[in-house]
Fold:
Amino acid sequence: MRILTVLFCLCPLAVAQNFPDMDSFVTDVASVLSQKSEADLESDLQRYQDQTGYTVAVCIVQTLDGMSVEDYAHDLFNTWKIGNAKTEQGVLLLIATVDRDVKIEPGGGLEHILTAGRSGEILDEYAVPFLHDNNWQGGVESTVRGMKQTLGTLSPAERAAMVEREAKESAESAAKARAFALHALFVFVLLLGGGIFLFVSVRVYNEKKRKAELRRENEKIKVELSGYRQDLLRRKEDIKEMPSTFPDWAKKNALVLLEQVDSILESTRSINSALAEDTDVAAQFLHGVQVALGKVADALETIKVHLPLEIKVYEEDAPVLVHSADKALKDARSAVEQLGKEGFHVEKFEPVLAAVSGSLQDLQVALTEKRPDFKSICEKARVHKDEISNCKTGAKALKETRDRVEHELHALDKKVSDTLANLEEHGRKFRHFKNNAPSVCWRELDNKHGKLQNHGHFRSSSEKAARLNHMEVQDFAAAADIVSAMYAEIITVKEWCQSIDSAVQAYDQAMRDYTSKLHDAETARSHANSQVNDSDAGGDARSLFNTASASLSTAESMASGRKVDWPTVVKHLDVAITKFGEAKSNAESDILRAEQRREDARRAEKRRQEAARRSSISSSSHHSGGGPSRGGGSYGGGASRKF
Structure:
């Protein structure tokens, strides 16, 4: 394979030896130009070279001998060595009349002028319209004219003078730019300093203005707060006797509030003399005084308005709550008595109801006293209502629990029968599975099966729940717990049976898949083998191939036993298929990279050979007389077109 690749790569080099010789500026191998036209073009290109130093060569052939126009033009240019060896300012115009190709191939010194874009524009505008109509003379003359217009008519000395003039102008422009930059920097620094000074001045002025305004505001607030404090002192004097008429609980709350009021008013006595020199500190102090006096106002409002209103609410609610609790007591007693008549054990509710009844009688007596504690009466009445509600709810729950358990026990009869039958059927299925599959497939299921072997506990649990739910026993809660446990056990049995079905189904499916999986693995190994054994394949591909082969061997070995773990066998085959595919993919990538490295080496060698040919040109190749300059080289620029 490598020998064929090298021979193929050497083919263009062999073809390049058949290029026509270059004896003048125009080489018309296809004989499409008249002698006069060719002579005129020779003279014109000679004068142009003498004037500008640019060498323009024209080559007209019939075919490119199977090469692309880019390769043909590139190799022909380097064979003819168009242009001066030092400046490489030569350009080739190649036309293939039969292959209908045209190409502008510039030397290294003209690629910045005859760029791919500009060369393409010249061909589109000056060459293709003529060549398309087989007007070879018009196409050549027009294209040469377009290239000359692009390259210009300045002599080397004029171009050097122009470059020197442009460099001088550039230096003068740079000097002016530096002077302007220094001037601009001075102006910027001046403006920046002035801006900073102005900014600081404005800040100082604004700060003084703010403090003056804040000082005036503080004085205004101080006057307002002083008046507000005096008003609060008067309001305190007006209500200080009110707590003596309150009940004990309200009086206690009012006295606490009055103590807080006295403390705050005492702490704010220095409002007229304690303002600090710093206006910001003074503003903070006044804000604190304002908040404190607000608390005083709230406390006085509570004593004068809210506490009397709360006292009134308790006075109105107390008789209503006691009456409501008494009515609820009668309803609860009626419900408990009815359940007792039906045979339910309600003895535990009677002491609670009796105690509540006695307490309610005491509350009714307390309402008739001279100064009743209405708040305490309301709180006790609410507690008794909760106790009565709990008794009534508990008594009602006895009947509801018994009826629910009775209903569920009837429904359980069929569920228990179905569960026992299902357990028996899957027990036989499981024993058959154990006889044919290895223990690793059924060990976990066997542990669960051992816990479900006692079938009789379903019947005994059902009988125990019915006995506890009987009116002679009345342990309804325990009966409900047994029923719930039975339902949970039935669900456990159902899940175990489903696990048996899933395990058997998976085992049977794996056994059926083995043949096709084995065929797929062997096919994947065959496909990967040729790629992995290629000399360009890397170690990773071989490692993956060996891993896959080991998985395949393990699967085949396991499948030959007596009790086969088919799911595990299929997993090994899946691993083998995947690894064979990865090995094939890696090997293909390694081969492609190796081919690319060889191709890169071939191109580097070709570039090295071309560089060696250019460097071997002696100084005698420099142009010293008539005819085109020789010694230049091309690096593959320019553009080409079909016509």
In short: Residues 4-154+623-642 form a domain with the Diaminopimelate Epimerase; Chain A, domain 1 fold (CATH 3.10.310.50). The chain has 15 helices and five strands. The radius of gyration is 56 Å. The CA atoms of residues 8 and 616 lie 27 Å apart.
